[in-house]
Amino acid sequence: MRLSRTTAAAPVRIVHLGLGNFFRAHQAWYTAHAPDAQDWGIAAFTGRSAKLADTLSAQDGVYTLITREAKDEFEVVSSISRAHGAGKHDAWLRYLASPDTRVVTLTVTEAGYTRDRDGGLDTTDPAVAADLTALRRGAPVRTAVARLVAGLAARRDAGAGPIAVVPCDNLPGNGEVLARLTAECADLVAPGCAEVASFVTTMVDRITPATTGADLATAEAATGYRDEAPVVTEPFSEWVLSGEFPGGRPQWSATFTDDVMPYERRKLWLLNGAHSLLAYTAALRGHRTVGEAVADEVCRSWLAEWWQEAVPHLDLPAADLDAYCRALLTRFANPGVRHQLAQIAMDGSQKLPARILPVLREERDAGRLPRGAVRLLAGWVCHLTGAGVPVSDPGAAGVRDERDALALLDLAGDEELRAAVAAEANRLRG
Ligand code: CS2
């Protein structure tokens, strides 16, 4: 029997860009669990391929969330009322121009923000340049910022009222980042349209690996129906938000605060930084998943070293941070979540600045050479130069050695750091 919807779909009031596993384990799940879920349906658009939208549409938007630890728990999540492929530009514009829509959420990955080295809109990126031309002609666009600007312009022209824009990617100050990019894009093609948007900054967390064929079989055996797109995730989840929702929002069971930054830095440095460290270094010891890596005491000692460097730069009580790191080790060791190092290794040039640079800079300013950060960078250099998991990072094309790699992070001038990274990379290569 095929999975299908058993309750009426909620009216669409949220539009999402970046329909994928993380969104389905996180924001869609929070929305499904809100006490007013029946009022807040989601229209979710994929970022590129329409495949997942087609698969979900064939089962009325619903899917199975498999929450894994020692055993599996299965639940059907039904907050996605409509799923659309990325190419459905007119549908996107219609939702954005509707007064019923109150919130736009985004999960487009770090690279999806198409920023230049200064954090502004990268107008030299061919996809961005093509979209700017298309926006001037009112033609369909593909990049996230251009899609948002097209939608906001349609909303402003329709007089549909203000809307909250909620980026949910691992970037510090993601609300401010997206506000800047949107304003820069709007200035070029539709001045003033971003005024209808209230940008919300968020920290999001839930470890969500790619789904495997075995997961489909497990879900079918346990539930008795066939789901072509289940999602596996861990029990832990966290969502911290700061900003205004002028048109309302679901009663999400999340943390609302004035300042997301302390949570964001804690998560980006301690969790994501640790992930990247393992993705590049543990792979050199033959491991393929985060779970395998943390079963190796050498890798655990590398994590401890990085955490010891990062923790003193965080503005949260030391005991809480200690507990946070211990909990991370348990989360990383979760036997049910087979999180591939290759998945985490992708797009390092976009991910590493948020994950290690603030700590590294402060350590260097204090005259120290932090070994954990050096090891992470050395692992990344090994990865980019052919050791470890395969490279998938358009932003790091053409890197030949540690000089090229460090230049991507604006660290090229630090000769002492370069030498340390080169020496460590040699050690890691064995
Ligand atoms: C990971 C994140 O792929 C990656 O880069 O570090 O996706 C991580 O699993 C999530 O941020 C956890 O919330």
Element layout with pairings:
Layout: E1 12-17, H1 21-25, H2 27-33, E2 41-45, H3 51-57, E3 63-68, E4 72-77, E5 80-84, H4 89-96, E6 103-106, H5 126-137, H6 144-158, E7 163-167, H7 174-189, E8 197-199, E9 201-205, H8 213-223, E10 231-233, E11 238-242, E12 255-256, H9 261-281, H10 290-294, H11 297-310, H12 318-333, H13 341-345, H14 348-365, H15 371-384, H16 402-408, H17 415-429
Parallel strand pairs: 1-2, 1-6, 2-5, 3-10, 6-7, 7-8, 11-12
Antiparallel strand pairs: 3-4, 9-11
Polypeptide structure, described:
By secondary structure, the protein is of the alpha/beta class. It has 2 domains: 12-259, NAD(P)-binding Rossmann-like Domain (Rossmann fold), CATH 3.40.50.720; 262-429, N-(1-d-carboxylethyl)-l-norvaline Dehydrogenase, domain 2 (Orthogonal Bundle), CATH 1.10.1040. The protein contains 17 helices and 12 strands. Strand 7 (163-167), helix 7 (174-189) and strand 8 form a beta-alpha-beta unit. The longest helix is centred in the middle third of the chain and has 21 residues, at 261-281. The mean pLDDT is 97. D-mannonic acid binds next to helix 9 and helix 13. D-mannonic acid binds at residues 170, 205-207, 272, 275, 343-344, 351.
